[in-house]
Automatic annotation (TrEMBL):
GO terms for molecular function: 3,8-divinyl protochlorophyllide a 8-vinyl-reductase (NADPH) activity. It catalyses: protochlorophyllide a + NADP(+) = 3,8-divinyl protochlorophyllide a + NADPH + H(+). GO terms for cellular component: chloroplast. GO terms for biological process: chlorophyll biosynthetic process. The keyword Signal applies. Residues 47-248 form the NAD(P)-binding domain. Its EC number is 1.3.1.75. This is Divinyl chlorophyllide a 8-vinyl-reductase, chloroplastic. PANTHER family: DIVINYL CHLOROPHYLLIDE A 8-VINYL-REDUCTASE, CHLOROPLASTIC (PTHR47378). It comes from the Eukaryota.
Length: 387
């Protein structure tokens, strides 16, 4: 039971908010065109150290942008772990130390870049609060993202691409409200053109049980394992889509829901795919969805009588978990499906190579795991990420 409750809470974070994939982005004709259009232009990536942000940095460089990666703590990139996690993504980009929560700092950075480059053509925001709790969400998903927009408007920047989330269309969580508030501010202004991309789910959010099943424990699915369906998208595919929004005018002034190439996948199907990738016999445990209500209601009750912010936040984390246990993250319209990398391909790769530990999700692996089972950090060159 204790394991189940821990799992419920950890799923909460996983679902909304994991490791880079060593995937190859297929270069389409459109991409080649966009690459030519982007040559010599300037792009700023905010939230550059995030799961999608770092893929965007790599994609912007690949498309020929002079790319500036905004980073709050550049020292994080210098450690051995930082080298492994970021070096393959940041090659060719300028790393700029910047506190996005400090409007003046951001304004200065944008003014300096504009002075050097004459114009900022694209700002791509992949900023997101790490916890999803109300205070962080309004600080980052709303205010810091707004700071980026205002700094861009002040220097006459061109196009703003917002990485949002599919789930905001049915918003009963605090972080979704914060995201919607920024989406509204972006749409209201007319100085910069914009694209809002709302992805369904990332591969990291449906990969957290790899190490669990490898340890011999069952795959835990909610309800009968068929309560929800999703079509997650690979981070490299999503990064290509986000950067292409800058040059593809048909994506301007639009809110776009976006999922990956898979057909609808239930949790049970995801489990079966993971067992297939690991070559293990399927072994499932089914957790009732009401377990979330027990955890949430208990935490909320305690929060209300004690006034504890910690307990209030824990209850919100529980609500985040429940949200993804009961809501589909699915696009079926062909115009809302994108990319070439399927979830099975991703599972096959991480089952062989391991995946990077992500403290903000249910990625249980401590480090990328080598084929021989040695859990020491893999050298950066061994984990070279693509192409
Ligand atoms: N997970 C999913 O399945 C899923 C699906 C659809 C949409 N989304 C949405 O996609 C977005 C991005 O997700 P992600 O997983 O790529 O994000 P992430 O890995 O959590 O990265 C968040 C980025 O924001 C930065 N950041 C957070 N707090 C900050 C602070 N206080 N000051 C400065 N920078 C801060 C982080 O910097 P540090 O590295 O310095 O912390 C990092 O660069 C989120 O809005 C999420 O809702 C997620």
């Amino acid at each position: 039971m204790l394991r189940l409750i821990t799992f419920v809470l950890s799923m909460s974070v996983a679902a909304s908010f994991a490791p880079p994939t060593t995937t190859t982005t297929t270069t389409t004709t459109t991409n080649r065109l966009n690459t030519q259009l982007a040559a010599e232009k300037t792009a700023i990536i905010a939230g550059a150290t995030g799961y999608i942000g770092k893929s965007c940095v790599r994609e912007a460089v690949r498309q020929g942008y002079k790319t500036y990666a905004l980073v709050r703590d550049p020292q994080k990139l210098e450690t051995k772990e930082g080298q492994v996690s970021f070096a393959p993504f940041f090659e060719g980009a300028e790393i700029v130390k910047c506190d996005v929560t400090n409007e003046a700092d951001l304004q200065k950075v944008f003014a300096d870049i504009t002075a050097d480059r004459q114009k900022i053509d694209a700002i791509v925001s992949c900023l997101a609060s790490r916890s999803g709790i109300k205070k962080d969400a309004y600080l980052i998903d709303y205010q810091a993202t707004l700071n980026c927009l205002e700094a861009g408007r002040a220097v006459g920047a061109g196009h703003f691409v917002l990485l949002s989330a599919f789930c905001v269309k049915n918003p009963w969580l605090q972080f979704q409200q914060a995201k919607l508030k920024f989406e509204a501010a972006l749409q209201e202004q007319t100085d910069m053109t914009w694209s809002i991309v709302r992805p369904t789910a990332f591969f990291k959010s449906v990969s957290g049980q790899l190490e669990v099943i490898q340890s011999g424990a069952p795959y835990v699915a909610f309800g009968d394992g068929e309560v929800t369906r999703c079509n997650p998208i690979a981070e490299s595919d999503l990064a290509t889509y986000l950067l292409d929004c800058v040059t593809d005018k048909t994506r301007h002034q639009r809110i776009i829901n976006l999922g990956g190439p898979d057909e609808p996948l239930t949790m049970k199907m995801q489990g079966e795919m993971l067992f297939k990738a690991t070559g293990m016999e399927p072994n499932f445990a089914f957790a009732p969805v009401w377990i979330f209500d027990v955890v949430i209601n208990t935490l909320q009750f305690l929060a209300d009588i004690t006034g504890s912010e910690k307990l209030e936040n824990a209850a919100e984390t529980g609500r985040i978990g429940k949200y993804y246990a009961v809501e589909d993250m699915l696009t079926t319209d062909p115009s809302e499906k994108y990319g070439t990398i399927t979830l099975q391909e991703h599972y096959n790769r991480i089952a062989k190579e391991g995946q990077e530990y992500d403290p903000y999700t249910t990625m249980f692996s401590r480090n990328r795991i080598r084929k021989d089972g040695n859990t020491k950090l893999v050298e950066a060159k061994e984990s070279a990420m693509v192409e």
